[in-house]
Amino acid sequence: LQGIIQAYKSGITLQGNTTNLGRWDYSGSFFFSISAITTIGYGNLSPSTAAGRIFCIVFALFGIPLNLVLLNEIGHLMLLGVQHCACRLEEVFHWQNKASFLMKTCALVTGLLLFLLLPPLLFSDKEGWSYEEGFYYSFITLSTIGFGDYVIGMNPDRTYPSWYKNVISLWILFGMAWLALVIKFCINILE
Fold first, then answer.
1. Mean pLDDT of 11-22
2. Is the pTM higher than 0.90?
3. What pLDDT sits at residue 12?
4. How many CB atoms sit inside 10 A of residue 89's CB?
5. CA-to-CA separations, 101 to 50, 82, 94, 170, in angstroms, rounded
6. Residue 40: how many other CB atoms lie within 10 Å
7. 168: closest CA among 56, 28, 36?
8. Cellular component per GO (predicted)?
9. CA 66 centroid distance within chain
10. Band (86; pLDDT cuts 50, 70, 90)
11. Under CATH, what is the fold of the domain 1-190?
12. Which of 3-12, 54-63, 90-99, 123-132 has the lowest mean pLDDT?
């Protein structure tokens, strides 16, 4: 049994293995779908049949553009929220440029906390990673680099709560939208 677990940790899987240590349960499948349409593609899980590969291609052909539209809408809503708060501050406190700068700073700090600084604490608890490893995973995931050297929910020695992969999937979607706004903001500054 130790040899099988060690082989699994090294990335070796048996063809025809129906359980695959829970990777294709509902949360694992949802997580795979998110990693496919966000183009993260960790490389730790992939379809093993011709029908599965064809389905994955069709799913990605429609899912990737739809995801880009979704991320754009989420980012737009976040931006509208920040602009609305800035307008309210300007009205209440009669601040002109200070309100916009304050709200952008608050949005940046809130996003840093929610998407890059606090999630590594969860990953440390659930995965046993160091804070630095969790921070690295957070950035590599949200930037869609997705090396696959760290992937959540894959340690066979750990028991994960049923909500874990679903919450992380939502974190990925909202975090990517936030990071896209930050990158867009940096591009505007550089131009």
1. 51
2. no
3. 63
4. 17
5. 53, 10, 14, 28
6. 21
7. 28
8. plasma membrane
9. 16
10. confident
11. Helix Hairpins (1.10.287)
12. 3-12
Identify whether the C-beta of residue 31 lies closer than 8 Å to the C-beta of residue 165. Answer: yes
Q: How far does Cα 77 stand from its chain's mean position?
A: 18
pLDDT value at position 60? 96
What is the chain's alpha carbon radius of gyration, rounded to the nearest angstrom? Answer: 20
CA dihedral 159, 163, 167, 168 (to 10 degrees): 20
Give CA–CA dist 43/156, Å, rounded.
Answer: 17
Per-chain mean pLDDT for the chain: 87
| Average pLDDT for 161-180 | 94
Q: Are 27 and 165 in contact (CB under 8 A)?
A: yes
Looking at per-residue pLDDT, the higher value among 85 and 20 belongs to 85
Give residue for tokens 């990777």: 23
DSSP for the chain? -HHHHHHHHTT---TT-SSGGGTTSHHHHHHHHHHHHTT---SS----SHHHHHHHHHHHHHHHHHHHHHHHHHHHHHHHHHHHHHHHHHHHH--SHHHHHHHHHHHHHHHIIIIIISHHHHHHHHH---HHHHHHHHHHHHTT---SSS-TT--TTS---TTHHHHHHHHHHHHHHHHHHHHHHHHHHH-
Which is more confident, 89 or 74?
74
Calpha distance 125→155 (Å, rounded): 13
Instruction: In whole angstroms, give the CA distance from residue 115 to residue 182.
Output: 12
Neighbours of 166 (CB within 10 A): 15
